[in-house]
Amino acid sequence: MLHKNKIALCLLLVGLLVMLPVWSPGVSAAAAQPSSHIDAVLVLDASNSMKTSDPNEVSGEAMKMFIDMLQAQGDKVGIVSYTDKIQREKALLTIQSDADKNDLKQFIDQIDRGAYTDISVGVKEAVKVLKQGAEPGHEPMIVVLADGNNALDPKSGRTQAQSDQELNQSVQEAKAGGIPIYTIGLNADGKLNKDALSKLSDQTGGKSFSTSSADDLPQILSEIFASHQKLKIVPVSSITANGSYQEVVVNVPNANVLEANISLMSGKPVDVQLSDPSGKDVPVPSANVQRSTSKTYSLIKLLKPEQGDWKLRVKGIPKDKIDINLIFNYDLELAMEPLKSASVKKGDTVDINAYLVSNGQKLNNNGLYKDMTAKLLVKDLDTGDTKEVELANQGDHFEGSYKVEAKHQYELKVRAEDKSFYRESKPVTISAKAAGAGSGGAPGADKADKKPFPVWPVVIGIAVLTVLAAAAYFVMGAVRKANKGFVGQMVVEIRDENTGEKTYPQYKKLTAFKGKFNLHQLLQLAPELKETEKVMFMPGKNDRLVLKNNSACTVEKSGRAVNAAQGTELKSGDRLSISLPQVDKTILIEYLV
Fold first, then answer.
1. Residue-wise over 262-281: b if at least 16 C-beta within 10 A, else e?
2. Angle subtended at Cα 114 by Cα 111 and Cα 120, rounded to the nearest 5 degrees
3. Which of 43, 175, 283, 519 makes the best surface tag, with the fewest CB within 10 Å?
């Protein structure tokens, strides 16, 4: 009886929705969100040919610099190294401290080489890692570094056609998931298949780069970071070291800068001193100044720096050339005011207003607009042509108008920029195809175009929907169960039973998972911990977790062994220890809501 009542209620609602006339008060540009974090997977070709292409292992250094440029907290990074199989991989790790970044960089240093190459293997795994661990609201991306064509193992029986098919499928998954793929081709031997790498990027909305020198890789990775964040690299200076301190001015243009990344490209030791806009010396590193060093670069990160001219004093080895670049990270988005209507006609004028948003609120700092320019990008969806219309900077917003030129459909978005960043509003669509739009872009309909309400099509539609709703009801329960989400987080430590040493605690948010996940995913898919694949977690009632153990691992809850083959429930504050007999390690877990 309860099921019948629910079905009747669903049908009543469906019927009402169908019979209601469509009403649209305007074209809504979705409210801009605060600057989002990155979920990035770095994919490295680990074939033996890379020894020739990159003998000094600059590729790894470049990837490290990319990691160092990420925000101090909140971004997530995964790493995949491949040959014709996955050599090593690290699932998405949430960066919460310098220790997390060092963990990722050490992982890069430990990558091994192999004889063959199959790029489809690396891309497929990267897409999988993002689908399993990407955070809702984060900006996903894949960066692929390769040095040439595939070199398949003839003994494997795998064909180039099979590799191409698998790669195409992965690219389509990335495209459907809004995951841009950035590619870097290292063309040391002149045999780079540039077109193939460009195709990966073009199809997914990424960018493609190629170079014949590994020394260019840090600059390329900087450009990829900046491009994905809608930032610009600001060249600061290029100096030839003389053995003494040389002063360079770093201008922080406004108070909305979250982080300033100052990169110093040099393969030799570099010493730095820093003073803030008031002239006070600031230790490097210190509370709001981080420094990372490597074989080819030094990176200084200023956290929420004060506006004004900072003085950087650089001392290097005499005659060493040091390139200094600057990338700002902003908490800024661009929002376009809702249009009056999505329905227009040829000759109508569409008024445009756009403004900057910080932390979800319209920006009150008018000084930021001072050096900015903006334009409206109008894409004719019928012809594919794009037109630019300059917008006026009114000091606290941008405004202008567009006159509809034809009975076509158009996509509109605003782009605003200054020398260090740019932002684009979310696109909105208008249509001049349907008759009855009011002049001036205002909503309205010509009375001559109005027709009697189509009663019979609605009746038939309700009958069809009745059948569909009844069928859908019985599958909704299964769908809800499969997509049920998790809450809270897990604090995870790994204890080596031979030495007694424990890793530092990792805080793993569970909101990215749906339906179920296994412990191996939570442990970054580390190969040595593979036996945890059969330790499963599922959401329970009242914000609880259900653990099912189908592995040979021993599970203890609050110090007492439990038989979790049929499932054991965890509430907030419960602690687990899971012993791995194959590697003499114990996973220590605390569940927190």
1. bbbbbbeebebebebeeeee
2. 90
3. 283
Which helix (H) or strand (E) covers residue 327, if one does? strand 321-330
- Nearest-10 crossing angle of helices 98-109, 58-69: 160
pLDDT at residue 465 in the model? 57
Across 366-375, 411-420, 489-498, the highest mean pLDDT is recorded for 411-420
* Pairwise CA distance, residues 550 & 519, whole Å: 12
Alpha carbon 475 to chain centroid, angstroms: 33
Q: How do beta strands 181-186 and 139-146 pair? A: parallel
This prediction has a pTM of: 0.59
What is the structure's pLDDT at 461? 57
Angle between helices 2-19 and 455-483 (to 10 degrees): 130
Q: Amino acid identity of 433?
A: K
Non-local CB neighbours of 307 within 8 Å, separated by 6+ positions: 252, 253, 254, 255, 257, 277
Across the chain, mean pLDDT equals: 82
Lowest model confidence (mean pLDDT) among 49-53, 88-92, 242-246, 491-495: 49-53
H helix intervals, 177-306: 194-204, 217-228
* C-alpha separations of 240 from 58, 214, 317, 381, 528 in Å: 22, 21, 9, 51, 47
Q: Which residue has the tokens 């319209």?
A: 362
Task: Scan for tokens 């000091």, then name that residue.
Answer: 395
Taken in order 512, 536, 516, 140, the sign of the CA dihedral is positive
Identify the residue whose tokens are 């190294």: 81
**So what's the pLDDT on residue 491?**
84
Question: pLDDT tens across 90-125, in order?
Answer: 989 999 988 999 999 999 988 888 889 999 999 999
Task: Please list the residues that pair with 556 across neighbouring strands.
Answer: 561, 577
Task: Identify the pLDDT of residue 171.
Answer: 94
Using a 10 angstrom Cβ sphere, with 0-12 exposed, 13-18 middle and 19 or more buried, the burial of residue 65 is: buried
User: pLDDT digits over 252-280, tens only?
Assistant: 887 778 899 999 988 888 999 999 999 99
DSSP string, 520-583: HHHTTT-GGGGGGGGEEEEE-STT-EEEEE-SS-EEEETTEE---SS-EEE-TT-EEEEEETTT
> Measured on CA atoms in the order 9, 11, 13, 16, is the torsion positive or negative?
negative
CA distance 330 to 255: 9
Residue with tokens 């080489």: 113
